Amino acid sequence: MNEILRIFKRAFKLIGYDLKKAGKFTLLPLHQQPDIHLQRVYEAFDWEKQKIGGATQSNLNELVVIVRTCLRSNRNVDKRARFTGASTVETIYRCLRSTIRSINYAWQQKGGQGIKVNILDDHSDADYLKKINDLCKDIHCPWEIKTTREAGQGKSLYEQFEFAKSLDALCYFCEDDYLHEPSAIWEMWNFYDQVAKQTGRHLVLHPQECEFLYQTHYPSYILAGEKRHWRTMNHATHVLFTHSHVVKTFWTYFENTKHVGDRKKRQLGSESKTTNLLFKHIPGFCPIPAVAGHAQFELTLPPCFNWQKIWEENAN
């Protein structure tokens, strides 16, 4: 490498990029056993050694969307602008509009059936809750708002998963600050349905690639979907698209989400100690590009995600 290229190499590294000679690996090839999450995917698609994971006996025609909301002035309402340029309140309102639009699109694609929406509200202030209720009036399918038994992020996480255990339906566990493409929920449903029926295995989907996937690279399978590609992964947040039977079967991986937000026990509720353990047993996928993005910090947004377009489309 000549001196000019070395200068470019050093300059690019400062902004997170690198230069490689043509034909040189950016990821080392595998010499030993595949990563465990790849093995789960292999087993799911291995027709000769197929291990039925219960999907063939599960209801894939119904979807329950559970959206957790929380706007409390004593907790999370900050009037300072987020990276979106708007307040926390306005950011959540726009995210909710985008989620509702995606719900309605899926409802339309299913011929006006098969979807229910549960808004699980974590004791929002009265004026904020009224606005959330007003926004939900645009939902086309059956919906209801329920206040959580106890206040707190971990308490609402636990309650949503506990509720799902008793169902026989697909579940999308979502938070109020995710910006959704109009087709997001339908695409996740369609991909899940196709793969589950072909393999007899349940899946776990996350609507975006996590930042971790671009910090610590590990090999992945890439599948071509109808509108985008899907990559295997074993890292996600607690925002998941899966089946209620997965929650029931692997309840021990969901139970400790009750510790999220607890200063003393929050590590027990982290994704690595709870729902990411699902990928020891079940294939996980996320879409490329993302179908939704976490509008919490700029770093939590996935690559190649045009959040500005969705943001403008969901203005008041």
Account of the protein in words:
- The chain has 316 residues and is α/β, with parallel strands linked by helices.
- Helix content is 32%, strand content 16%.
- It is built from nine helices and eleven strands.
- It has helices at residues 3-14, 36-45, 88-109, 126-136, 153-165, 184-199, 244-249, 252-255, 307-313; strands spanning 63-69, 115-121, 143-147, 170-175, 178-180, 204-205, 222-224, 229-232, 240-243, 284-288, 292-294.
- The strands form three sheets. The chain has a five-stranded mixed β-sheet with strand order 3-2-1-4-9, with helices on both faces. A four-stranded mixed β-sheet has the order 6-10-8-7.
- A hairpin with a 4-residue loop joins strand 7 and strand 8 (229-232).
- The longest helix is centred in the N-terminal third of the chain and has 22 residues, at 88-109.
- It is globular, with a radius of gyration of 20 Å.
- It starts with a helix and ends with a helix.
- 38% of the residues are buried.
Set down the secondary structure blueprint:
Elements: H1 3-14, H2 36-45, E1 63-69, H3 88-109, E2 115-121, H4 126-136, E3 143-147, H5 153-165, E4 170-175, E5 178-180, H6 184-199, E6 204-205, E7 222-224, E8 229-232, E9 240-243, H7 244-249, H8 252-255, E10 284-288, E11 292-294, H9 307-313
Helix pairs in contact: 3-4, 3-6
